[in-house]
Design brief:
The complex is a heterodimer of chains A (525) and B (372). With 525 residues, chain A is mainly α. Helix content of chain A is 68%, strand content 1%. Chain A is built from 17 helices and two strands. The radius of gyration of chain A is 23 Å and the shape is globular. Chain B has 372 residues and is of the alpha+beta class. Classes of the chains: A mainly alpha (525), B alpha+beta (372). Bound molecules: protoporphyrin IX containing FE (HEM) and copper (II) ion (CU) (2 copies).
């Protein structure tokens, strides 16, 4: 591999200075940075909401928030974490890394790229700001089921609007990423030679383009039911509330894979680096990702086993869901095989990657338990489900984001990460996150419903443990912020190849990556 | 130096707060099943859990072995293999076979769960924001079931009882060993009727009727909760099922029917205002206070206050109509099928005379006249 980073170009087109740089930028690295800081900000807001939720649930009885506010907090926490944190963070990674990994000078549509980003703060502002309106923020759950969602006030309409904006942003981002990957690869980089992170994002982009319009359609129907007298979801007018759930989850299940496929990509990059060994089963990883994506369109109703579907439908969705576990398993086996016989070292990025493999699998197992329709009858809408999706989303998606940050920070900032602070961040997070979410399995099995502000006495002990875990986990994230700020402001200089075992085009350009890279395409041999 | 003492006081306060809660259950698993279906679910769950545990131990045993033995710091050099078709085929096929093994008992359970034919007793259950209505279709007995935990316990002004948040005024009563078919629907938003020990959960969908069934194996009291977010008081609409012997069940049914006959007689009576107010206060607390609040002030921006409300202090006819028919597209439900004439007259009178309101009383006959 050979890179022609041309320093001359970066002198001629240096970034403009001041706030206009960020407002008008079309540079993929700047936009990647914006996405990542936006995600960090929303993580702070969504995280503070979670702290309030855990504080209220610290003991039985109503103490600090009343039920109305509690429901707003859970709803906004869910919407913010999914649409404001995980998705923008992955898009930030894609913006920074995809051009660098495929040897492209920038994204395919740089101006649209700017627009996709700047829509996000608008949507985020609408969501969070609507809490201040009379009647309070949206409180119908992130799943927005009617008829409950039809009862709310003006903030519900603003939420629909915000989702439309975020959807437009995601679709534009996805089209941009897919086009970049398909058209702008360096000569010699065939599809089956692309880094796995690029593969997972290509597939994610297609998922986004396929399902974001479905979500937009669903919320538009909510909007017209609320304001223009239609009856899509009301039986009185010939509609059906359950139809919303079908449409929502036809979006929603692929969405959960939108939230995890890029994570698979990051982990498949980090583990080989620190095992000093190529990824095991590259081709089967690609096929597994693709089959997960296809299957994800056929399992949506596993979220609806209790709505009263006919037995045949229940069985179909149960079998299809079980099937998804096969390619997911293949991925886990491949990661373990990559570590096997490697020469492993434990930098913070690798620690998070190892924790990901282990803890994401726990989430996969609880997914299997939930996939058994009769068992789901007992566990649906309980804390067991809360445990399941936090294991896949927090110790899954979020931990992969942490791993990615620790892994690529040297490339982004030009400085090595402070591993001591990083380790503290890792160990505190890894221990507290289990304290936070593992007891929720027990709570769900014992019968505690989700989305309740107060609970019966037998649930008190595990809730207290979960809350303590939650506070520690929340506080630990301050360490991450410190690590990032330290790394931006200084530290040991990182060489172009910041990690001994790192492979790929991004490590052939200087650290920090110059403002313009690969103005001349590199040759991939 | 007040610091250490402040911390000490904080810890002491914390411990004392927790002290009354130590009814430590530390329950790790599903509750002991009290119906055949719950028992089967329990067994399927145990089976899957063990399979997952076994896979976890094997896979992560291998991973931690590698992490330990194949460390760089232990001087291990990497071996550069990256493919092995036969291994990859094996670890695709074996999980597939395991999954088929797990799907088998689950399939049988799904088919039986769906088999609601030939019940011994059918009860129609309707979800309301935030209470349940039980309608014994064969016997014409019908009543509401509302949270019985006093507000003071929820607001931490009184010690919490043993069944905090899991107690109702009128439980569902069924005979032991009989197949009970539950027909579920809802009056407003989606709720879910869930009793874990009996192995039933089914969503209640407004405008549609869904069914499920259970057969309780043992006499006893079983508690559950609404399992679908249904608004503000979703956490406060429990379900209690009392399973009685056949004889006790029949006695209970007879008592219920007698009460119905008494209530029917009320509809033609004329009551004194104080009598109506006293009765109305209770009905208000059980049916209306969740939204309009006990002090009649409502929640600004969400639920209007009734103290000084133009409707509640205006002409009786409009007030009666509003409560009978509700208001479409808002959380204000129609009460014509929920409350009888005497109860409606009582609650209306209460609203018209409480919190400084000074409108005229309403008699059951007025309500009756404005039905349909
Ligand atoms: C082996 C793979 C998986 C299986 C078999 C599986 C299965 C399930 C099932 C059956 C449910 C419905 C539970 C219920 O509501 O009763 C569920 C819920 C959920 N899953 Fe998974 N899952 C898997 C992986 C994932 C992944 C990778 C993610 C995201 C990164 C994810 C995110 C979620 C979320 C967010 C919910 C809850 C949605 C809600 O009700 O709010 N799952 N999963
Ligand atoms: Cu799903
Ligand atoms: Cu509910």
């Amino acid at each position: 591999m050979d890179a022609h980073a041309t320093p001359a170009a970066s002198v001629r087109h240096g970034p403009p200075t001041g706030p206009m740089r960020w407002l008008t930028t079309t540079n993929h690295k700047d936009i990647g940075t914006l996405y990542l800081w936006f995600a960090a900000t929303m993580f702070l807001i969504g995280g503070l909401m979670a702290m309030l939720i855990r504080a209220e649930l610290f003991q039985p009885g109503l103490q600090i928030v009343q039920p109305e506010l509690f429901n707003q907090l859970t709803t906004l926490h869910g919407l913010i974490m999914i649409f404001g944190v995980i998705m923008p963070a992955f898009t930030g990674f894609a913006n920074w890394q995809v051009p660098l990994m495929i040897g492209a000078p920038d994204m395919a549509f740089p101006r649209m790229n700017n627009w996709s980003f700047w829509l996000l703060p608008v949507a985020g502002g609408l969501l969070v700001g609507s809490m201040l309106l009379p009647g309070g923020g949206v409180a119908g759950g992130w799943t927005m089921y009617p008829p409950l969602f039809l009862q709310g006030g003006i903030s519900y309409d603003l939420t629909i609007f915000a989702i439309h904006i975020m959807g437009a942003s995601s679709i534009m981002g996805a089209i941009n990423i897919a086009t970049t990957i398909l058209n702008m690869r360096a000569p010699g980089m065939t599809l089956m030679r692309m880094p796995l992170f690029v593969w997972t994002w290509l597939i994610t982009a297609y998922l986004l383009i396929a399902v974001m319009p479905v979500l937009a359609g669903a919320v538009t129907m909510l909007l017209t039911d609320r304001n223009f007298g239609t009856h899509f979801f009301s039986a009185a007018g010939g509609g059906d509330p359950v139809m919303f759930q079908h449409i929502f989850w036809f979006f929603g299940h692929p969405e959960v894979y939108i939230l995890i496929l890029p994570a698979f990509g990051i982990i498949s990059t980090v583990i080989p680096t620190f095992s000093r060994k190529p990824l095991f089963g590259y081709a089967s990883m690609v096929y597994a990702t693709a089959s997960i994506a296809i299957l994800s369109f056929m399992v949506w109703a596993h979220h609806m086993f209790t709505v009263g579907m006919p037995a045949a439908a229940q069985l179909f969705f149960m079998y299809a869901t079980l099937l998804i576990a096969v390619p997911t398993g293949v991925k886990v086996f491949n990661w373990v095989a990559t570590m096997w016989q490697g020469s492993i070292s434990f930098e913070t990025a690798m620690l998070f990657a190892i924790a990901f493999v282990c803890l994401f699998t726990i989430g996969g197992f609880s997914g299997l338990v939930l996939a058994m329709a009769p068992v789901d009858i007992q566990l649906h809408d309980t804390y067991y489900v809360v445990a399941h999706f936090h294991y896949v989303l927090v110790t899954g998606a979020l931990f992969s984001i942490f791993a990615g940050i620790y892994y690529w920070l040297p490339k982004w900032t030009g400085h090595r990460v402070d591993e001591t602070w990083g380790r503290w961040h890792f160990w505190l997070s890894a221990i507290s996150v289990n304290l936070l979410f593992f007891p929720m399995h027990f709570l769900g099995l014992a019968g505690m419903p989700r989305r309740i502000p107060d609970y019966a006495l037998q649930f008190a002990d595990f809730n207290r443990i979960a809350s303590i875990g939650g506070f520690v986990f929340g506080a630990s994230q301050i360490l991450l912020l410190i690590v990032i700020l330290k790394c931006i402001r200084g530290g040991e200089k990182a060489p172009a190849r910041a990690w001994e075992g790192a492979e790929g085009l991004e490590w052939t350009v200087a650290s920090p990556a110059p403002y313009h890279t690969f103005v001349q395409p590199p040759e991939v041999k | 130096m007040p610091r250490p003492r402040a911390i000490g006081a904080f810890i002491a306060a914390w411990l004392s707060l927790s002290a009354p809660l130590v009814r430590a259950d530390w329950r790790l698993n599903l509750p002991a099943p009290k119906s055949e279906m719950a028992a089967r679910i329990y067994d399927i769950h145990t089976l899957i859990l063990l399979v997952c545990l076994a896979i976890f131990v094997v896979v992560f045993g291998a991973m931690f072995y590698a992490l330990f033995r194949h460390r760089k710091s232990a001087g291990h050099a990497a071996r550069h293999f990256h493919e092995n078709t036969s291994v990859e085929v094996i670890w695709t096929v074996i999980p597939f076979l395991i999954l088929i093994g797990m799907a088998w008992p689950a399939t049988k359970a799904v088919l039986d769960q769906k088999d609601t034919a030939n019940p011994d007793l059918t009860v129609k259950v309707t979800g309301y924001q935030w209470k349940w209505e039980y309608d014994y279709l064969q016997d014409g007995v019908k009543f509401m079931s509302v949270l019985a935990t006093p507000r003071e316990q929820i607001e931490n002004k009184a010690a919490k009882g043993k069944n905090y948040l899991l107690e109702v005024d009128e439980p569902l009563v069924v005979p032991v060993g009989k197949k009970v078919r539950i027909l579920l629907t809802s009056n407003d938003v989606i709720h879910a009727w869930w009793v874990q020990e009996l192995g039933v959960k089914q969503d209640a969908i407004p405008g549609f009727i869904r069914d499920t069934w259970f057969r309780a194996d043992e006499i006893g009291t079983y508690r559950g909760q609404c399992a679908e977010l249904c608004g503000k008081d979703h956490g406060f609409m429990p379900i209690v099922v009392e399973v009685k012997s056949e004889a006790d069940y029949q006695a209970w049914l007879a008592g219920r029917k007698a009460r119905l006959a008494l209530a029917a007689a009320d509809a033609d009576k004329v009551f004194g205002v104080d009598e109506l107010k006293a009765r109305g206060e209770k009905i208000y607390a059980a049916n209306c206070a969740a939204c309009h609040q006990a002090d009649g002030k409502g929640l600004p921006g969400v639920f209007p206050g009734l103290a000084g409300s133009r409707v509640a202090t205006g002409p009786a006819a409009a007030h009666i109509d509003l409560v009978l028919r509700g208001k479409d597209g808002t959380a204000m439900a129609a009460y014509k099928d929920q409350l009888n004439d005497a109860d409606l007259a009582a609650v209306l009178t209460y609203e018209r005379t409480a919190w400084g309101n000074a409108a005229d009383a309403v008699q059951p006959a007025h309500v009756k006249a404005r039905r349909d």
